[in-house]
């Protein structure tokens, strides 16, 4: 993963683990935005409208890379949500799409 990228894994019951890897030159805020953008893509790809992040972990791999990993609960618009801060996938895609779309 020296050049960056992402992974995502379905954990069951609408839960996913999504990670985004970047080089050390990428700022922490930009990396978090890339992670949110990827989570929104995963949500839409699996038929969900919104998501909540229950846990994030940042990792620094020496001088070469850094990663941010999130455990995410996805939901459809008809579902009532409690707990974590919830994001609308369409809003995240609209906000960060113009900034990151060229990286897909």
Overall description:
With 104 residues, the chain is α+β, with helices and mostly antiparallel strands. It has a single domain, classed as Gyrase A, domain 2, CATH 3.30.1360. It is 29% helix and 41% strand. It contains two helices and five strands; from the N terminus they run ββαβββα. It has a five-stranded antiparallel sheet with strand order 1-2-4-3-5. A hairpin with a 2-residue loop joins strand 1 and strand 2. The protein is globular.
| Multimeric organization | single chain
Mean pLDDT reading: 85
Which CATH class applies here?
Alpha Beta
User: How many runs of DSSP E, i.e. beta strands?
Assistant: 5
Distance between the termini: 16 Å
Count of the domains:
1
Order of helices and strands: EEHEEEH
Strand content: 35-45%
Q: What is the name of the CATH architecture?
A: 2-Layer Sandwich
Rg result: 13 Å
Keywords:
Gyrase A, domain 2; five-stranded antiparallel beta sheet; 5 strands; 29% helix; single chain; alpha+beta; 104 residues; globular; 41% strand
Note the topology.
Elements: E1 5-12, E2 15-23, H1 28-45, E3 50-61, E4 65-75, E5 86-88, H2 89-100
Antiparallel strand pairs: 1-2, 2-4, 3-4, 3-5
In short:
By secondary structure, the chain is an alpha+beta fold. It has helices at residues 28-45, 89-100, and strands spanning 5-12, 15-23, 50-61, 65-75, 86-88. Strands 1-2-4-3-5 form a five-stranded antiparallel sheet.
